[in-house]
Amino acid sequence: MNLSDKAMLVRLSISQWSGRKYDPQASESVKSQFHTKGDAGNFNKILVPLEDLKVIQKIVNFVRTFHNANTLPWEWDGVGMLPSANFIEYSSKVRQVRGDFENAVLNFLVKYLEMKKNAPKLLNGLYKESDYPSVDELRRKFSFDVDISPIMNADDFRVKIGEEEVADIKASIEERLGKATEYAMRSLWERLSEAVGRMAETLGEQKAVFRDSLVENIEDLIVLLPRLNLTNDTSLNAMLASMKSLTVVSPESLRKSGVLRKQQAEKARVFLKQIESHLK
User: Fold this and answer.
1) Long-range contact pairs involving 150-158 (C-beta distance under 8 Å, separation at least 24)
2) Residue 91: which residues within 8 A CB-CB, separation 6 or more?
3) N or C, which terminus of the chain has less Cβ within 10 Å?
4) Are 115 and 49 in contact (CB under 8 A)?
5) Within 35-162, where are the H helices?
6) Which of 113-122, 154-163, 243-252, 259-268 is predicted least confidently?
């Protein structure tokens, strides 16, 4: 399989202003007051009310979780492998979330000067004008970037060196891509193992409290993983089709019926054994 024909690399980079500032003098004062020694803690000032920043943080947390769920692991931190089959869904959602992020940042910047004006009352003796960036400086502290690049295959290596050295390097590239593919596909089985294992364990305890996500997480995987099935693994597709039986009983019905809980727990345990056989 030519990996470069099946997937691409995508890097999600997001930065944001924390709205907090470390204050060394206040930290020393607290340490002195409580007679602590060493690095017992630091004091960070909250420069502005955090409600609007929390809106931005919620968006950031969502898109990072979405990115991790919709890409396969790659060997570099912050980079995921995006199968072409999942490109439209991924790019459409990220485009939408980027718009939400930009709107939330704009809303925060509009309110920032008023927040800064009220800061002396909020912080009293801890207030320092130098802690507060200008609006233009603050705007630059927020960014949302998605960089997509192709996956290099062995034939892309065209540096003019000896043929023997080129052959060795190409072999190394092919080996690395092969291992990356194996690792990516294994990660899909691991996702299944985690979700089904949680269902088996939770439903196996008749009095255990659980959320609807116990079933919904499996429903989501049944929809998502075929788009991430890079090698078109038929055993994975067959497993996902069979696992629909784990989602036919609603969470509410499982809460009300001990019999249904027991039946679905047993089904989950059977599926878990089958899934774990692919992880050995």
Assistant:
1) 150/4, 150/8, 150/9, 151/3, 151/4, 151/7, 151/8, 151/9, 151/81, 151/177, 152/4, 153/2, 153/3, 153/4, 153/177, 156/4
2) none
3) C
4) yes
5) 51-70, 87-123, 135-140
6) 154-163
- Tokens 């249904």 map to which residue? 260
**Rounded distance, CA 72 to CA 140, Å?**
30
Using CA atoms, how far apart are residues 171 and 112, in angstroms rounded to an integer? 55
Instruction: Tell me the pLDDT tens digit for each residue of 8-53.
Output: 999 999 999 999 888 777 667 766 777 677 676 777 888 998 898 9
Alpha-carbon span 264 to 272, nearest angstrom: 12
Tokens 């960070």 label which residue? Answer: 44
- When pLDDT is averaged across residues 132-151 and rounded to a whole number, the result is 94
The per-residue pLDDT for 123 is 81
The answer to whether the beta carbons of residues 52 and 106 sit under 8 Å apart is no
